[in-house]
Amino acid sequence: MAQPFTHLFQMGNESGDLAVHSPLEAFENLVGLLVGDRQRRLLLGEDVRPDPAAMSAIAAKAVQRWLILYKR
Prior knowledge:
Helix content: over 70%
Radius of gyration: 14 Å
Order of helices and strands: HHH
Number of domains: 1
Distance between the termini: 25 Å
Structural class: mainly alpha
Largest sheet: none
Number of strands: 0
Shape: elongated
Oligomer: single chain
Low-confidence stretches: none
């Protein structure tokens, strides 16, 4: 699953749009941002699966945070 993302991140590096030193690490950080919210909720005792709209919002927020880290 990581390969399409790491390839995309490498292309972003080559185009100058991203500042990714390690495409694999960038992928791991994106996954961490995506699942981190869910993991925190589970640790706090919530076991409710978000509805599709909430999942979309979580994904958008994760991508925004990821871009703060890697966008030039």
